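Anyone up for a design puzzle?
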């Protein structure tokens, strides 16, 4: 807790910017108590035993590219791509709410502070301004699961063809960062706009894709 005794000082925000390196999968064989390695690493009751497993397994064949971007209105995008032998094995996109609710612009989203859109079981996109219902028929978690499956199948991070609400007008964030100009805009249910998270994903995917190509791990 901080000095006022009101808020936790630890953060749930992802690592900033681009991080990349060998990918080690968390497995059940990692013990809850890490006994340490004599002369190298001390015992640590809070360690998952990852160092010990890494020493036994040797260098992995998979690479992880992690890229995050603070949008500036109380939300941070986080894209994690795992690549192996020139193929994408996983493409996971999430959006993380700010540590403090006062940093979140949309009043209906403040209750989700310190939570992930993907992992929060109660998360729902709010109604767009002027609407009395949801604008999209598929929730965030399902959208991102579909995205991962498509990218792994097609090996194309930028082609969202066929995913629900992946086409349509770019109306910006709609709710995460409400635009007053959208309040009375007619959002025809038969011609729904592009799902806002896909707009953020595509922008960030280009950054990760360029980095992977530069490193020669994916073409």
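Challenge accepted. My sequence:
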């Amino acid at each position: 807790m901080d000095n006022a005794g009101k808020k936790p000082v630890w953060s749930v925000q992802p690592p900033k910017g681009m991080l990349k390196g060998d990918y080690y999968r968390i497995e059940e064989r990692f013990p809850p108590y890490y006994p340490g390695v004599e002369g190298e690493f001390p015992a640590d009751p809070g360690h998952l035993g990852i160092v010990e497993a890494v020493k036994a397994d040797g260098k992995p064949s998979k690479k992880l590219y992690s890229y995050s971007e603070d949008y500036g209105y109380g939300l941070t995008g986080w894209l994690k791509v795992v690549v192996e032998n020139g193929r994408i094995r996983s493409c996971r996109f999430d959006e993380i709410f700010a540590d403090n609710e006062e940093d979140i612009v949309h009043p209906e989203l403040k209750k989700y502070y310190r939570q992930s859109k993907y992992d929060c079981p109660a998360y729902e996109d709010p109604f767009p301004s002027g609407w009395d219902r949801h604008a999209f028929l598929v929730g965030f978690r399902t959208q991102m699961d579909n995205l991962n499956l498509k990218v792994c199948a097609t090996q194309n991070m930028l082609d969202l063809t066929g995913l629900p609400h992946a086409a349509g007008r770019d109306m910006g964030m709609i709710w995460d960062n409400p635009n007053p100009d959208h309040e009375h805009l007619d959002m025809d249910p038969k011609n729904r706009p592009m799902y806002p998270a896909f707009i953020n994903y595509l922008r960030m995917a280009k950054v990760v894709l360029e980095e992977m190509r530069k490193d020669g791990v994916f073409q």
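A detail worth pointing out: The helical segments are 50-57, 140-154, 196-215.
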